[in-house]
Design brief:
The complex is a heterodimer of chains A (573) and B (317). With 573 residues, chain A is of the alpha+beta class. In chain A, strands 8-9-10-1-11 form a 5-stranded mixed sheet, sandwiched between helices. A 5-stranded mixed sheet of chain A has the order 16-15-17-12-18. Chain A has a 4-stranded antiparallel sheet with strand order 4-5-7-6. In chain A, helix 3 packs parallel to helix 5 and helix 10 runs antiparallel to helix 12. Helices cover 77% and strands 1% of the residues of chain B. Chain B contains 13 helices and 2 strands. In chain B, strands 1-2 form a two-stranded antiparallel sheet. In chain B, strand 1 and strand 2 form a beta hairpin. Classes of the chains: A alpha+beta (573), B mainly alpha (317).
């Protein structure tokens, strides 16, 4: 009722209200987002909203571009074995790996005693917003902060892997890492901090760094930023104003000012767009897919809506400790019984592609040559019969002992889309005699207790956020099953155990030859599709709602966001 | 009277102390913590990172230890940093508290300015067309869901007519009073419209009761003018029960402010409390909730003092 009225009013508004600002006034872009970053410090807290803003104001050394290729942004050339800037080297004597680390069985065992030396050169003209050149001093300071256990850095895995950094000159440095790894030259998360400003904040009490950092106490200090834009003002929780950075060394941006407004309520976000208070709703943190589809139907003449599948992998994790779900035939039957094509078509306008495995079709490692589970209730029934679950007079399947084939299905309570999907799954499974009872929980209970401590007995529906060429080590490796004994470490919540899969993952991680790695990836996907450790549903998509005059925004589909190329954005009437 | 006020202030402090324990405990009993939630959003976060961050933020300590640590720091005036805003708590709370006081205060003043005369007029002519129209408007206001009204106003004034800003507290580059006032119009108006009905009904009911009293008949017999009778004699008596209800209505007004703040992206305390509790931002949640508790307690104290002003027979010892 409310939505219908809203739509009518929006429609009326468009008809009577006309377009937003006159063309001549346009030298700024106002972006609407549903999230406000908790901090702008590059390495404290991980939030989509923060990476979105930092894309305008900073550049990582390396990142994945819109075509999913690893590229240099702050460095001059991507180091590779081929160009001699990356080398395999012996690890320092006495170096010990973490206990429990497994190693590829078919690989040369001496590789386990090797690390890598990778040399980077900083862009010669790169300077901070206050004119101070970016040098290796900043690199060493960033490393010092990253290594410090008390500095509050969120993701310190990258820094833990670094044994040492050698400074070759003001612009060149070599990173020595503790392993041979195909991702050796990607230091996407090594986000530079300005030593000349931040050293004082780190001081002699690193535990206070989080509170003292200038990114919190003086975020408009130009010396903190080195992207095409710098932060001009902040209204915490409300908006961030970015202005052109005069010291930016790259292509000059055409848009002079970017304002990012936070409006959490998506109906209000839509209204703000239609009223001209904002120009663009970012897909990274904007409307849900169903809201965007409804918006597009009403306003496609006034706005461009661009859908981009992303790396949110929606799936169902079955608990393999459940005797029925531990049987591969039952898992396969569950998937055969679902018409996922129709589900994504009906609910998401076909914008969210059906997943065959956990590898996105946009990733270069993806293969189509895997077992497919097209909707086939007869095949599902045959598999269940073979597994000993026969159809009874009550319309449900039972085993020889008369126990019904019944599961609990859980997801995040209050998330409308997932609750809708659940109902479809429940009814399609019921059609082949599987009794599914829905039992949802609030997100914080589900993730922090039920899933992470493996308290679910049947099926859970949620998403993994992955990254390009992501080895699913933490989610599929048998050493990663959370238990009380290991302090609930790991994310293999299904308790999936496959020696073949374990070894494939271990081998992929150390294979530097792209061609050989591709073959291994194909094997892994085939094994995944056969075993079904999880039941893949679809990859989520993001909707970018843009005014027709905005050009050059290219969504990436991965976690390195479109704003990293904001200097290419154009206003074109 | 002074002794009474001091006693009530001492009681307020005691209640705040008890509330601090209850609030801290309740937030702590909620399953999961911010680091657990972070784990689901960051595929690269390792178990070692989780353990390190929990230790750094003291989340690996027993709840009582954490509370004692917080309380001893708070008693020394150190309320800490907001985890979700990366700023000192006071730096987050003060501007938002001011925004909410402005929003609720203006809304309350306007609602009373409408409710009191309208309620008096309705009670003065019970069953008349005026009474029926006033009652109808009051019930209409009370039955409209606030979020719906707010969105409707947004659509009308911002999308369709384009006369008012759709969200925020000010426009970038225009930091004057007029600009701030324009941003306040819709939030204040929507909150007023849904609260005025209840106030009006309370005033009407209290006035109807007051007008039945003997002293009103006596005043009428003495030839007191109608205006003086209604506003000078009956209203003053009717205000005593109304003030009680008004103090109790503070909570309703506060939850209304939360909805309004969210729809109009207006930075205030309602939204701050909600986010702080949901995000386990202990320092921010504690200060915000204790401030709200203090405001409720102080508004009740103000109501008690108002009784004495309205009815000289009431004395406090």
């Amino acid at each position: 009722m409310v939505r219908t009225l809203l739509r009518l009013l929006i429609g009326l508004g468009i008809v009577l209200g006309g377009a937003g600002l006159p063309a001549a006034a346009r030298d700024q872009l106002i972006i609407g987002s549903t999230q406000f970053p908790s901090t702008l410090h590059p390495s404290i807290d991980s939030m989509l909203a923060k990476s979105y803003v930092l894309g305008f104001t900073q550049r990582p050394f390396t990142t994945y571009d819109q075509d999913w290729n690893l590229v240099c942004l702050l460095c001059t050339e991507l180091p590779t074995i081929e160009n001699g800037k990356a080398k395999i080297e012996d690890l320092p004597p006495g170096f010990k790996r973490d206990a429990g680390t497994t190693f590829c069985k078919s690989a040369d065992p001496t590789l386990a005693t090797k690390g890598m030396a990778v040399t980077y050169t900083i862009q010669p003209n790169a300077t901070w917003g206050d004119g101070t050149p970016i040098t290796t001093e900043d690199v060493m300071f960033t490393y010092e902060v990253g290594k410090n256990e008390k500095s509050g850095i969120t993701n310190s895995e990258l820094y833990r892997r670094i044994i040492k950094i050698d400074v070759l000159d003001k612009k060149t440095f070599t990173i020595h890492s503790d392993r041979v790894d195909f991702g050796y030259n990607g230091i996407n998360d090594f986000l530079l901090l300005p030593a000349h400003l931040e050293r004082a904040a780190l001081g002699d009490d690193p535990a206070q760094y989080r509170n003292r950092t200038l990114y919190s106490t003086d975020p408009t200090n130009p010396g903190l930023w080195f992207g095409p834009y710098r932060v001009a003002s902040i209204e915490p929780g409300s908006q961030i104003v970015l202005e052109e950075n005069p010291t930016w060394w790259g292509e000059k941006p055409q848009i002079k000012r970017i304002i990012i407004k936070t409006i959490e309520n998506t109906s209000a976000l839509e209204a703000n767009l239609l009223s001209g208070s904002i120009d663009y709703i970012a897909g990274e943190s904007g409307l849900s897919i169903d809201e965007a589809i409804a918006f597009e139907q009403r306003h496609k003449d006034a706005y461009d809506v661009l859908y981009k599948p992303v790396l949110f992998f929606e799936h169902i994790t079955p608990n393999h400790d459940n005797p029925a779900l531990g049987d591969k035939r039952v898992r396969q039957a569950l998937l055969y019984a679902l018409d996922r094509e129709v589900l994504t078509q009906q609910l998401f306008g076909g914008h969210q592609p059906v997943a065959d495995t956990d590898v996105s079709p946009l990733d270069w490692i993806h293969t189509d040559d895997v077992k497919k589970y097209r909707y086939d209730p007869a095949q599902a029934a045959a598999l269940l019969d073979a597994a000993g679950w026969t159809l009874g007079g009550d319309g449900l399947r039972h085993d020889a002992g008369g126990r019904p084939l019944a599961f609990e299905l859980m997801t995040t309570a209050g998330e409308r889309t997932r609750e809708l999907v659940e109902q479809v799954l429940q009814s399609q499974w019921k059609a082949i005699g599987i009794d599914v009872r829905i039992k949802n929980e609030p997100a914080r209970v589900l993730f922090s207790e039920t899933i992470s401590k493996r308290k679910f007995t049947g099926l859970t529906l949620f998403a993994w956020l992955t990254s390009p060429e992501n080895v699913p080590h933490t989610t599929l490796h048998s050493t990663m099953v959370p238990t009380e004994a290991n302090g609930w470490a790991g994310q293999n919540y299904a308790d999936y155990r496959s020696p073949e899969m374990d070894d494939l993952m271990d081998c992929i991680e150390i294979e530097l030859d792209r061609g050989k790695r591709e073959q291994m990836w194909h094997k892994l996907q085939a094994a995944y599709a056969e075993d079904l450790p999880d039941l893949p549903l679809y990859f989520r998509a993001q909707a970018f709602i843009m005014p027709k005059w905005l050009r050059g925004v290219r969504p990436t589909g991965h976690q390195y966001q479109s704003t990293l190329w904001a200097e290419q954005w154009r206003i074109q009437e | 009277m002074t002794r009474f006020i001091l006693q009530r202030l001492a009681e307020t402090l005691l209640v705040l102390l008890l509330m601090s324990f209850v609030i801290y405990g309740l937030i702590g009993l909620m399953p999961g913590d911010p680091i657990d939630l972070m784990l689901t959003a960051d595929p690269k976060l390792t178990t070692a990172d989780v353990a390190r961050l929990k230790a750094l933020q003291g989340l690996d300590q027993p709840l009582v230890d954490r509370y004692v640590h917080w309380l001893s720091a708070a008693l020394q005036g150190d309320f800490g940093y907001s985890r979700s805003q990366s700023l000192p708590v006071w730096q987050v709370v003060v501007p938002r508290l001011w925004n909410t006081i402005l929003l609720m205060g203006l809304s309350l003043v306007i609602a009373l300015a409408i409710a009191i005369p309208a309620g008096v007029q309705a009670a003065a002519r019970p069953g008349s067309l005026t009474d029926n129209l006033i009652n109808l408007s009051a019930f209409a206001g009370m039955s409209v869901p606030l979020f719906w009204l707010a969105i409707l106003m947004l659509m009308l004034f911002s999308v369709h007519l384009r006369v008012l800003p759709a969200s925020g507290t000010f426009s970038v580059g225009a930091d004057g009073i007029a600009d701030r006032a324009r941003h306040l119009i819709m939030p204040v108006l929507s909150l007023t419209l849904v609260t005025v009905g209840a106030h009006l009904r309370y005033v009407r009911s209290a006035m109807t009761e007051a007008l039945r009293q003997d002293f009103i008949r006596t005043a009428q017999a003495k030839g007191v003018s109608r205006g003086r009778l209604l506003y000078g004699h009956a209203l003053r008596n009717a205000m005593i029960p109304f003030v009680t209800v008004l103090a109790l209505e503070f909570g309703t007004l506060f939850s209304g402010a939360l909805i309004v703040e969210q729809i109009f992206a207006y930075l205030g305390m309602g939204k701050t409390i909600y986010d702080a509790v949901a995000g386990n931002d202990y320092n921010l949640a504690m200060v915000s909730l204790l401030l709200s508790t203090a405001v409720v307690l102080l508004s009740n104290l103000a109501a008690d003092l108002a009784y004495a002003w309205l009815d000289p027979r009431i004395t406090y010892r």
